[in-house]
Design goal:
transmembrane; membrane; mainly alpha; about 0% strand; transmembrane helix
């Protein structure tokens, strides 16, 4: 399957369905991290509010994204409003999940490992966007705001706490 702009009409109709399934998979991952956290180290939820807030917020954000993208599937078209809302909820939830894993790495491994993890996510998002823009130059503005939001969340709520800035 290629990029959306190279897809047949039938393939394009499947995109919202694929997005719903991806969000459900991320929701499973988020619940797993949360359950492991409250089972193995429940004190971290009280000791590290930046961690507990992010993992807890990721769950309703993923649910909202699933509902928005399910609506696109249900109504049979990928409306701009629902798609945008679903994507923003997904992007924020995904960034919060990545931050949660990074903070857990800083607690259970070390700050260097956590920093490398978070910086690798930033780098790989940039590479993905460069490749996407190379395929379709009109996507530049969209990739800048999407990656900008992702990177800002990772730096402010992930990297800074890992480095002890706050």
């Amino acid at each position: 399957m290629g990029y959306i702009w190279n897809m047949t009409a039938d393939e394009t109709k499947r995109v919202p369905d694929i997005r719903v399934h991806m969000n459900i998979a991320y929701l499973h991952i988020t619940f797993t991290v949360f359950i492991l956290l409250i089972t193995l180290a429940p004190e971290l939820l009280g000791d590290k509010p930046i961690l507990s807030i992010q993992i807890v917020l990721a769950i309703p954000l993923l649910f909202s994204s699933i509902f928005a993208r399910s609506r696109s599937v249900y109504i049979g078209k990928d409306t701009v409003v629902w798609n945008t809302y679903g994507f923003i909820c997904f992007l924020i939830a995904y960034a919060l999940l990545v931050n949660s894993v990074g903070i857990l790495l800083s607690i259970f491994a070390n700050h260097n490992t956590a920093s490398i993890f978070l910086l690798a996510n930033i780098l790989l998002a940039g590479i993905y966007s460069l490749l996407e823009v190379r395929e379709k130059k009109e996507r530049l503005k969209e990739r800048v705001w999407k990656d900008g939001l992702f990177v800002i969340i990772l730096i402010l709520l992930g990297l800074f706490p890992v480095l002890g800035v706050y």
